[in-house]
# Entry
Amino acid sequence: MFKVAIIGATGYTGREVAGILARHPYARPHYLTSESFAGQRLDQVYPQFRSVLELPLEKAEMKKVADCDFIFSALPHGHAMEIVPELLATGKMVVDLSGDFRLKDGALYPKWYGYEHRHPKLLAQSIYGVPEVNRTEIREAELVANPGCYPTSILLALKPLLLEGLVETTDIIVDAKSGVSGAGRSPQLPFHFPECAENFKAYKVAGHQHTPEIEQELSALSDRQLTITFTPHLVPMIRGIFSTIYLRLKEGFDENTLWEVYNKYYGGEQFVRLLQPPGLPETKFVSGSNFCDISFRLDKRTGRLIVLSAIDNLIKGAAGQAVQNMNIMLGLPEECGLK
# Structure
């Protein structure tokens, strides 16, 4: 049984990682840290863990971290950057759930995240952790940068189209929606119940921090520099990501060709489900799961291809994908703890 450390176990993603590992057949939470709740037990912060996972919460000590076999860092953006080098120094593999090691170009951090990146060598070393895209590289990685929730839903939806060169890459529009839990557990006025309930709004228009991450990974798939239009929205629900993506299909291709291509790439994937017409993704269908549901329609009247995807932002968009990465890195069956 692998012993696992979770650094930042009381945020939403840390909690979800702990919950998945509590039912994992080969790995168990062993050391949990929390700056805010040190001295309490996890079940005192989250009562659903009573008689399931009653581990103490402690301030991080590298000696205790080093006693574990694997490490998850579930700290906020900007904070993970300071501790991940220390975690790696223990000689253990790390999955980081923040945005601190996702971008290869460190010069992008001041613009998109508001701080300088102080460990550019680790940016070059980190592997971007979408298993359905980078499985081979993840298998050999010491540091995996767990992807953002929006990017996961978009990359999985577009991977087959870009690898096969079926769409124009100069006019990609992404209209995406997220549940409120995507903002994290720390109280903030815009996500206070009276502020966001019975309301629907766009936010960070033309300025969301996931934009360069999405463009970086889409460019890698298409082997050319891509620029997209990405507009996120806040939906008054707890969890879920729904992305609607508008593209131009190149001449000579039809819906039958598209289904053949999607089945080519995802027919053998455990966590990507393709929905044939009349089926369409819905956030409720993936809630609490590590699945990404994908479908599409070709609008012959306008010539637009409309691709739709849905994930749970806390599972496939965060903790579930993190555990999927851990399973690959440790040589375990990929679905362990996730089905």
